[in-house]
Amino acid sequence: MQDLSIEKIDALRAAIEAATTVQELKSILDVASGYQVYIKQARKNREAELKIAEYMIRTERKLGELLLAAKAIGQITHAHGNQYKRVILSGNNPLKLNEIGITPKLSMRSQHIASVPADEFEMVIRNAKEAGKLSRNLFLVKPSKPHQAKPKILASDGAQSEVVREELSLTAQQKVDRAIKLLAEKLQGDFDRAVKAKVDEVLGNTIARLRREQDEAKRIFASRKGIMNRKEYNQIRACLHTDRTASDSEKREAFILFTSFEKYLLKEKDSPTEFSAIPPLPTDVAAWSAWRQKTSEARKRGSKKDPPDSITTK
Q: Which end of the chain is flanked by fewer CB atoms within 10 Å, N or C?
């Protein structure tokens, strides 16, 4: 579990919601317990510890709900001469709870958690997470006085009982190990598929966006309009090259050419555009006709001068 992450831990919640049998929920508890031990030993962040604790509580609550429902319809009975409960899974093939690792202690605790109203349950979980202290002990009955001993979890027949893993039969342990392995493989598979789907989505969106941006850049480059052609560019560059000395005529032509680009290269404030030489525009049709007539007459006389600066009407 060297790669245990928050996403992998969060996958437990989906498994809890999808679980429909006591065996599946018990397997989830076993996996979560393994995660909890690893997190504590690896000294991971507190967020991971709180998430695992929350999912273990929610798993036990759902387990308790299934047990209470089974008890209500008579699917839970007692074996003769045996203190452990049975769950009738199908037909006439009963399965003892302790055979799948559900001890009387776990059974009673999960049913107690399941009996807590939903609003109160969520409030306790929320407050405990904010306080940074979350455990199943939040839902145990507390003694009313300090000197009172904490009540023990009893089996349904009143006998005190506590079963640990090592006390299970070899067959039961093998079944538990198999269930844990199957659930771990399922969780890992679900996580891997979710990660791959997300990566494919991100890559697909990124590639599509880059293609759109590349097409747009090519369109902009293709429509680019310069301020000079290649010949003019080479004329100026030749005079600036350090490996050759330009002739006076080349320098003069380059100077004239470069100066002609002043308005394109300088900001308006550094090279203001003069509008004083531009005659005022006609203000009405009569003025426009008079201006056109004077211009035409000047052209016929071969005059090189500009049209009159002032235009008047009679």
A: C
Q: What is the C-alpha to C-alpha distance for residues 113 and 185, in angstroms, rounded to an integer?
A: 29
**Looking at residue 86, what DSSP letter applies?**
E
How confident is residue 255, by pLDDT bands cut at 50, 70 and 90? very high
Tell me, yes or no, whether 246 and 116 share the same domain.
no
- Binning pLDDT at 50, 70 and 90, where does residue 168 land? low
Query: Whose CA is closest to 66, among 110, 34, 27?
Result: 110
Q: How far is it, in rounded angstroms, from Cα 61 to Cα 111?
A: 7
Based on the structure, what is the number of domains in the chain? 2
Asked if 253 and 107 sit in the same domain, the reply is: no
Span 82-134, pLDDT tens digits: 445 566 554 555 667 777 778 888 888 888 888 889 999 899 888 888 888 88
Alpha helices for 223-284 (secondary structure H) = 230-240, 248-260, 262-265
User: Strands across the sheet with 93-96, in order?
Assistant: 76-78, 85-90, 93-96
Specify the pTM.
Answer: 0.43
Decide if pLDDT at 151 tops 60. Answer: no
> CB within 8 A of 30, min separation 6: which ones?
101, 176, 179, 180, 183
Domain of residue 248: give its range. 229-266
Same domain, 71 and 127: yes
In angstroms, the CA 291 to CA 38 distance is 96
308 contacts 294 by C-beta, under 8 angstroms: yes
Q: Quick one: 126 and 249 in the same domain?
A: no
Q: Where are the beta strands (DSSP E) in 6-104?
A: 76-78, 85-90, 93-96
Phi, psi of 74 (to 5 degrees): 80, 20
Number of H helices, E strands in the chain: 10, 3
Residue 217 lies in a domain: no
CA neighbor of 58 nearest in space, from 134, 165, 151: 134
